[in-house]
Every structure is written in C-alpha cells, then in structure tokens.
Design brief:
The protein is α+β, with helices and mostly antiparallel strands and 599 residues long. It contains 19 helices and 20 strands. The strands form five sheets. Strands 17-14-16-15-19-20-18 form a seven-stranded antiparallel β-sheet, with helices on both faces. Strands 7-8-12-10-11 form a five-stranded antiparallel β-sheet. Keywords: FAD, Flavoprotein, Mitochondrion, Oxidoreductase, Transit peptide. It is an enzyme of class 1 (oxidoreductase).
C-alpha cells in the first residue's frame, strides 16, 4: 500500500491526461532506467540483439509496474470511503473535508444587561475624550424609531427592528472603539448615515448599536492633478461634487444613485444611478482605496493608502467590500476616482406609442455609438404622476417616454441630437415630440421631470396609511420591453393601478414605485406577492432581483433563487472569516433560516 501511495500521483496524472502523456511518461521511464541496467548486464550476444532484448524486457517490466501501480492506486482510492470521487477528468473532494461546506452564521448576542453595560461603556469612552457623552450617545425613542422604520419600503412599524442605542462617530478611532465595545458585550452593529436605502439595510432586527456615520462628512485631501479625492465615508456624493465645483475644478464623481446617498452607503449597496451607461457602477474602479474597520477592531487599507489608477498587487479586497452591505467591515475613509466634465452637454425627451417602441429606440442609439450619458424610461403612469404633482412647473406628453442626457464636444452633441431624433421617429415618436436643449437652464427644466419621479409618486399618494414600495430589478437590455409589458399587466390585474415605472433603460435597470395601503394586511400581502413575481420574472429573463438597491432584508429569498448554493456558501465563508460572531449588520444579505429577530 505504501508503494501505491508513492506511485499514485504519477499514475493518477498519467491516467487523467491524454494518451500521449501516458506514452511519453513510459518512454521517459524506459530511457532513464535502461542505461543504468545496461552497466551491469552481461554481454551474452551481439550488441544490437542484446540491447534489443534488454530494452524489450525493461519495456515489459515498466508496463507491468505501471499496470500494478494503477491497480493498486484504484484499490487504495476505493477504500477511502468515497471521499475522493472521480468524475471524468475532475477530482472532487466531498463536502465533509471542506471546512466551510456548510457555514452557519451565529445569531447569539448578549443579554439586556450586557447591552446596558455596553451603553455605559460607550458613554464613558466619549467622556474620556473630553466630550459630553450625550452629544454622541443617545437612547432617545424618536432617534431609535427613525432607525427602525424603513420609510422607503414596506415596513410601517419599527416594532422589533429598532436599535438599543445610536452612536454618532467622528473618525476611524471612534469606529474602532465602538466595535471593540460591541465585541466585548456581543452587541450587533448596524451602519447608518443617509438613511436612503430601500431594502431595510439600516434597521436593527437584533437591536444593538446603530453606528451613525453622518458626522464623518469631511474632505481629507483633494488631488485635482491626479483626479482623485480622499473623503470620510459619511459624506454625500452631492457634497463631493459641490466641493469640486467650489474649488474651481472640472472634475466630478459620476455615481449618482439619488439625493441624500452617502459614499459609505453607496459602497455597501454596490450602487449605480442614471450615469451608469457612460461611467459604470460602484463595481468598477471608482473606489481606489478604502480604510475599513473589521469586526475585531482591526483597521485595514484595501490598497495600502495607494492612489494609483490601477494595481495588480494581490487580489482586490475592496471588491468584496463593495456590495457587502456593511456585513464585512465598516468603511471609514475612501479615495474616490473622479472624472472630467465634458465640455458640452444637452438634454432630450421623446414620447412613444408604447414601451416596445421606446426600447427599440434605446437599442438603436446604444449600438450607434452615440455619446449618451443617461437614457431613462418613464412609463405613462409615471408621466401622469409628474404632471399631477405640479413639481416641475411644466407638463409632459402622457406617454411612455425616454429622457436623455448627453455629453461631449459640441460636434458630438450635435451628432447625438440628429441620431436621437432619427431613431425616435423611426420607432414611432412624432418629430415634434422630441425636445432637445443645450441651454443649461432650459435643459435642467426638461430633466426636472426625471429628477422628480419618486417625489411625484409620493406627492400624489398622500392618503392616510398609503406608502410607496420602491423596488428594482435588472435584465438584459433586449428583455426590458417584455419585463415592462408583463409587469404593467400584473400591476393592473392585481389592483395596484397607481404603480409607476422608471428605468435606467440604457442598462436594463427597472424600478417600480407601488403605492399601497400599508395598514391593510390584504393589500400588503398582494403587494409583497407582486414584488416577488417581479423578481422572479427578471430572473427568468436572465436578469437579477436587484440592479442597484441591494439585497438587505427585503430580497434575501430571491438572492437564494438567483445564486447557486455553492456561491452563497463562499459568501458565508468569507463573512465568517472576517466576522465570526456575526456582529456586523446581521440578518442582511446572507440567506439563513435563523436570520429573524428573537422575541
């Protein structure tokens, strides 16, 4: 058996490879052993005859040894309780030998007394810093209630979802100390800053600490010559762009998920926004470096403080932080890659007889290479809501419409105008319905309709108990017309007739804004089922249950339907490696039967 073990690697390699590999291995064995044997072989005949006979006998010996080795190797493998199974050319180690074959996230936290002790220690920390602790630590019910309500989703009550305490941090050392105290008392930590997330990311199903990043809103360093800026994670993307403009530079940060979003939250959800067609999403190279406090209080820098535009030094730790929803670490500082503003820009809007016509126009424009920055689809219900809200000071044609934002040189913008008009008319838009504007003020007035979409739906649905459930999915661009058409039908047949649709048509991202009566259990159930069907419809079209909002608590079951079980196991394995006690934002992102709050 010892022989079999020594021989198995070579024999197994020969057996797995092509037949030529086995032949060449045998030939090498013969050529190396024959000379050694010939030294001691007696000269019993002619040189050629003797060499031929000797070579023949050695060849037979080698082949015999190979056969014995393969047989012994096969027997040995068969006696290993099938732990190593051969499946064609692959060797698969059974799950029992893989330490993370079934990773389980723990949901075991401190007692009420532990949490109370932690709160007192948090107060003592800020006092030791020469601060009045009540400026940083609060258990005020209104503050906690705010963090337990998901105003942008369907959670109408904070019962069972509010934190025990809210802590305002100023810098990385503050975050580090809060995490150390949380570890000591086994207290969950939930990041909070802009409070604009849409899938319950910042609510606290296991109570604990709401770590408020909103005061970490400083610009640390600005390097216009290199096109980057270093900021604290609680700063808003709009503030970053205002800073760049105020300091006389033609740079800006192109990710624009929505008003109020902060850099840390944008990293957590893997956001994008209307500019994704031209500039990509948070998954790209927008975050050059991040300072992150891990669950054990250790501080890491994903690129060691480097500001190079690219790096091949190791794998990109930052890539697993983006989209992890605050479950792997708390981002405190970020180096953002900025983009130059184009010398000229313009806005256009066109109305179409139906969604299919609008989508065909989008495909034609994208394939033509027109320098488009944004292409937004607003369905007729959304246009109706905008007109009814009177938020824009103008009216739009109440049809399925496309809003365009263009940028580039003057010649490129003029070329884009002609291409958009030509494509729109080709697919059913009336030429006179295509508005195009290069004047900044008038262009901003046209674009106001797109910016007002969410607020318009909210403003026209202010009846008592009515909330607007905002959700998103994403599909290949060619599948968007079918997704919109089937979803519109589903909304109408389900009685959710006020539902309006807005989508980033340039990348297949679809948003539904669904007004519903949150106090009516039956209507809540209907809305929940409709959103579920929307997610499954997108997945069947080779899309995703969320294009930019993230998973949070709202879409965990659909993530499980979308990703293979092995992929989710790897996600959990990474989570456990970095946060073995599951303290960071528990109950979000990772499918788990225990991820519900205890009574």
């Amino acid at each position: 058996m010892v022989f079999a073990r020594r021989f198995s690697a070579r024999a197994f390699g020969a057996a797995r490879g092509p037949s030529t590999s086995a032949t060449s291995s045998t030939c090498r064995l013969l050529t190396t052993s024959a000379p050694r044997q010939n030294v001691s072989a007696p000269n019993t005949g002619s040189a050629s005859g003797s060499a031929s006979a000797t070579a023949g006998s050695y060849r037979n010996l080698a082949l015999g040894l190979l056969a014995v080795g393969l047989g012994a190797n096969a027997y040995y493998l068969s006696q290993r309780d099938s732990k190593l199974q051969l499946d064609g050319p692959k060797a698969v180690i059974s799950s029992g030998e893989y330490s993370y074959s079934n990773p389980q996230l723990p949901f075991e936290y401190g007692s009420k007394q532990d949490f109370e002790a932690a709160i007192e220690e948090l107060k003592a920390y800020f006092t030791s810093q020469g601060e009045a602790w009540d400026d940083f630590v609060t258990t005020d019910e209104d503050e906690l209630e705010r963090r337990g309500l998901d105003e942008n989703g369907h959670r109408s009550s904070s019962e069972g979802t509010k934190p025990s305490v809210a802590v305002y941090v100023r810098d990385t050392p503050d975050v580090q100390q809060v995490i150390r105290i949380a570890n000591k008392y086994r207290m969950p930590i939930v990041p909070f800053s802009g409070g604009t997330s849409l899938e319950g990311h910042y609510i606290a199903p296991f109570a604990g600490i709401s770590i408020d990043m909103s005061r970490m809103d400083k610009v640390i360093a600005f390097h216009p010559a290199d096109g980057d800026i270093v900021v604290q994670a609680g700063i808003g993307w709009e503030t970053v762009n205002q800073y760049c403009a105020k300091n006389g530079n033609q740079l800006f940060f192109p990710l624009d998920p929505g008003p109020g979003a902060t850099i840390g939250g944008m990293i957590g959800t893997g956001c994008s926004g209307t500019n994704a067609v031209r500039y990509g999403t948070a998954r790209g190279e927008h975050f050059l470096d991040m300072k992150v406090v891990l669950a054990n209080g250790e501080i890491i820098s994903t690129r060691g403080g480097g500001r190079a535009r690219k790096s091949s030094a190791g794998f990109d730790i930052g890539k697993i932080i983006v989209g992890a929803e605050g479950t792997l670490g708390i981002v405190t500082e970020v180096t953002l890659r900025l983009a130059p503003k184009m010398p000229s820009d313009a806005v256009a809007v066109a109305s179409f007889p139906n969604v299919e016509a609008a989508s065909q126009t989008v495909n034609e424009i994208l394939l033509s290479g027109v320098p488009v920055q944004c292409i937004e689809l607003l369905d007729y219900k959304m246009i109706q809501s905008i007109n009814e809200s009177n938020l824009c000071g103008r009216k739009y044609d109440e049809k399925d419409s496309l809003f365009f934002k263009l940028s580039g040189g003057e010649a490129a913008v003029a070329e884009a105008k002609e291409a958009i008009t030509r494509a729109s008319v080709k697919f059913g838009a009336r030429r006179e319905s295509v508005e195009f504007e290069t004047d900044k003020e008038r262009a901003a007035k046209i674009w106001e309709g797109r910016k007002a979409a969410l607020w318009a739906v909210a403003a026209t649905n202010e009846a008592p108990g009515v909330k607007v459930w905002t959700t998103d999915v994403c599909v290949p661009i060619s599948a968007l017309p079918r997704l919109v058409r089937e979803s519109q039908k589903d909304f109408q047949e389900s009685g959710l007739t006020g539902t309006a649709i807005v989508g980033h048509a340039g990348d297949g991202n679809f948003h539904a804004l669904i007004p519903f009566n949150a106090s009516d259990p039956k209507e809540l159930q209907t809305t929940t089922e409709v959103v579920g069907r929307l997610c499954e419809r997108a997945q069947k079209l080779q899309g995703t249950c969320t294009g930019e909002h993230g998973v949070g608590m709202g879409k965990i079951e659909y993530l499980e339907k979308e990703l293979p079980a092995a992929t989710i196991r790897v996600m959990k394995a990474i989570k456990l490696a970095l946060d073995p006690n599951n303290l960071l934002n528990p109950g979000k992102l990772y499918p788990h039967p225990a991820a519900t709050a205890s009574s």
